[in-house]
Design a protein that fits this description.
5 strands; 5-stranded mixed β-sheet
Length: 179
């Protein structure tokens, strides 16, 4: 393992106006030096699919956990055996679920089957979004960069703060009574 830090003798040589050992003597030599690591165009990750050709991932948000399977198809999204329009009646929640496909420019190209439990509808929609994002990157590793740049692969760790004893809620005190 090479250490890129300079030693004290190198610093002394730099102060004296000399080039340290192992360093290029001139700027031209530095600019024309070969790159130390070749640039690789192959993805670092492999495509991960099961025997049925589906990619699986788990998404989490607040107290909700979603198990998501995606496969190439017509864009049908099924949640707990129901269509997305039935399960997530609010358009904003359906918008949240479809965000990963919009960023990856893959609208209507994948069928999604997921089971989600725990939390409320908003947390469940966030969990499904997280799961779809993870599954997309497992099915097409090339999509990892745009999906990650949009922040969809990061699990949002914000949860409800617990209630403390001697308090009405997490931080609220009981009402003060002067008399």
């Amino acid at each position: 393992m090479s250490d890129n830090r300079q030693s004290l003798s190198d610093l002394g040589a730099i102060a004296a106006g000399e080039a340290p050992a192992g360093a290029p003597a001139s700027a031209d030599e530095y600019l024309n030096a070969p790159a130390s690591a070749p640039v690789s165009t192959t993805p670092l990750r492999e495509k991960i699919v099961d025997s049925l050709g589906r990619a699986y991932a788990t998404g989490r948000r607040k107290d909700a956990v979603a198990r998501v399977w995606i496969k190439p198809g017509t864009g049908k999204i099924t949640i707990n055996g129901r269509d997305q329009e039935v399960y997530f009646a609010r358009p904003t929640l359906r918008l949240v679920i479809n965000q990963p496909f919009g960023v990856a420019e893959r609208e209507g190209q994948y069928d999604v089957v997921c089971t989600v439990k725990g939390g409320g509808l908003s947390g469940q929609a966030g969990a499904v979004k997280h799961g779809i994002s993870q599954a997309l990157t497992r099915f097409e590793p090339v999509l990892r960069a745009p999906v990650k740049a949009a922040g969809f692969l990061t699990r949002d760790s914000r949860t409800v703060e617990r209630k403390k004893y001697g308090r009405a809620k997490a931080r609220r005190s009981f009402q003060f009574s002067k008399r």
